[in-house]
Amino acid sequence: MKRFVAVAGNIGVGKSSLTKLLSERLGWEPFFEAADENPYLSDVYQDMARWCFHSEIFFLARKLYHYNILLKRPGSVIQDRTIYEDAEVFAENFYREGLMDERDYRTYRQLYEAIISVLPPPDLVIYLQASVPTLEKRIAMRGRDYEKKIPREYLEKLNALYEEWIERYTLSPVLKVPADRLDFVHSSRHLDLIVEKVLEKLQGKEVVTFEIPEE
After folding, report:
1. CA 205 – CA 15 distance, rounded (Å)
2. How confident is the model over 24-71, as pLDDT tens digits?
């Protein structure tokens, strides 16, 4: 059976890594977020008020492009970051902080809502949860220049918005993964546990909690 799974979570939480690992383990085709292709992203971290609208429009357009491709694939696919996060977390934060003005925000929301009204949701959203110290550590490890000066306060606000969004998200089942305690990149046992829970969730089983295996 063809599956469409998406991985959600804050900056640095490990979405791309988990997308890659699950695609290799389960034979699913990966679709990665086009962060490095975004011509506005480095500018956003220098002047958010000037460039946030442009950056969010780029991400929205690229997500729509990926959707058009992945929905035509005959096999299962896994997507790095959902289209919903762009609007419900990042654009929402820019608006709440007064960095995206009312006119731009309303234009963006109208476009976003028109797009998602015709797109099928994923069969499963894997939501990676992590504390800000974990995010900061992982951001530092990957060493992207434009991310080095991300304020802790910004990550905290995004984390809060992620929790708000995931609590009201009802379009598909959600698997919450405690990324603070699961090092799926370096521990095969931790990755095995996530794979097990993902498959259970896709089968319609209720996954209440993760019992972290001892190394």
Report:
1. 23
2. 999 999 999 877 788 888 888 889 899 999 999 999 998 898 889 999
